[in-house]
Structure formats: C-alpha cells, structure tokens
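FAQ: What does the model actually see?

It sees only this:
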Amino acid sequence: VPTVVTGAQDGHIRVWDLRQKLNTFNMSCHPGGAVNDLGVTVRRDNPLMVSTGADGRLLILEPRASYRPVFELGALTEDFLYSLLVLDTVAFVGDGRGKVSCIDLQDGKKQ
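And it is asked to produce this:
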C-alpha cells in the first residue's frame, strides 16, 4: 500500500494511505514539541523509521509493529536538532551548534 508519513507541529506522526486518501495511523511521538525530521531505512528485512522533535528526542520506530518505539534517545544535544540523515543502519543528527551525532539504528546507541 503506498503511504506517506508526516510530522506535525503538535508532535504527532501520521501515516496516510494514498489509495484511500485516509489517515490510517496517528501517534503522539514528541509531546510538547513539533516533529522536526523523519527518515526511513530502505531495508526490506528490517525497515525502521526515525524521527527527531523539538523536545530534543530521537525515536526509532518499527513500522511493521504499529510504529512501536524500538529505541528512544534523549539529551542528544543542548541545542535544537536541525537535521537528520538516515543511511542503512545509521542516522546522523545535526544540531544548532554544528555538532553531528551518529546513532546506530540496530542498538539505539550513539557512536
């Protein structure tokens, strides 16, 4: 099913079914802050979705298990999380001070 995933100012992530033109999933992932970025791995054997929010957290979600959070990382930076790049099994997160953190998506640990 072709889908689109969106993040919103209210901290919710929503999944949209493009065929039915319906919101099929809605989850509060970053309460008290907007969703900044979303990224998805391209692995068919273990797809993961990554989100960062204005609450300073990074979430790794499992789409095949109703987007259950697999790992949650807080306090990655003392500044705002500005950018996210997801490549295979790692995510790179950049903050307002120019610091880039590398996260292993398989174990949820900062490298």
